[in-house]
Amino acid sequence: MNEKTRTVADSLVETVHFVRLNHLNGAGRLFGGVLIQWIDEVAALVGRRHAKTNVITASVDHLDFIQSAHQNDVIVVIGKATHTGNTSMEVRVDTFVELMDGSRKKINRAFFTMVALDENDKPTPLPKLEIQTKEEEEEWERANQRKAERKRRKEIGF
């Protein structure tokens, strides 16, 4: 690896949160806005680790709430780079409830587009993503498909 490339592992981020009373909505479940904040922070950390500069969230392409979380649940949020362009990158963020036995149950998945910024807050080139495994290669290809779909939606004004 050189300074013009980074691996997926170089930017991997995992955070852990304990769901407290102030994180709950009126139905007694983890408030979606709190979870979105946590996953946006993870996406930003992934972007900063990869770009070695500040980044901003340009879009959240996909956000699936698969299951809910409740008070006293342990939430694990894991983010990783899946694709890079010139100044932007895709970051996948998966969220899990960690059970007492250490196993994890997925509750959320999101895809973010992060843009690298220079010292004047202008988009700046970022290192390429060095693909090292078959799984990373497959994720790169799926990211290309999502990128094409984002472009198509933009063209039709979605």
TrEMBL record:
<dbReference type="InterPro" id="IPR006683">
    <property type="entry name" value="Thioestr_dom"/>
</dbReference>
<dbReference type="Pfam" id="PF03061">
    <property type="entry name" value="4HBT"/>
</dbReference>
<feature type="domain" description="HotDog ACOT-type">
    <location>
        <begin position="9"/>
        <end position="120"/>
    </location>
</feature>
<feature type="region of interest" description="Disordered">
    <location>
        <begin position="120"/>
        <end position="158"/>
    </location>
</feature>
<dbReference type="InterPro" id="IPR033120">
    <property type="entry name" value="HOTDOG_ACOT"/>
</dbReference>
<dbReference type="InterPro" id="IPR040170">
    <property type="entry name" value="Cytosol_ACT"/>
</dbReference>
<dbReference type="InterPro" id="IPR029069">
    <property type="entry name" value="HotDog_dom_sf"/>
</dbReference>
<protein>
    <submittedName>
        <fullName>Acyl-CoA thioesterase</fullName>
    </submittedName>
</protein>
<comment type="similarity">
    <text>Belongs to the acyl coenzyme A hydrolase family.</text>
</comment>
<feature type="compositionally biased region" description="Basic residues">
    <location>
        <begin position="148"/>
        <end position="158"/>
    </location>
</feature>
<keyword id="KW-0378">Hydrolase</keyword>
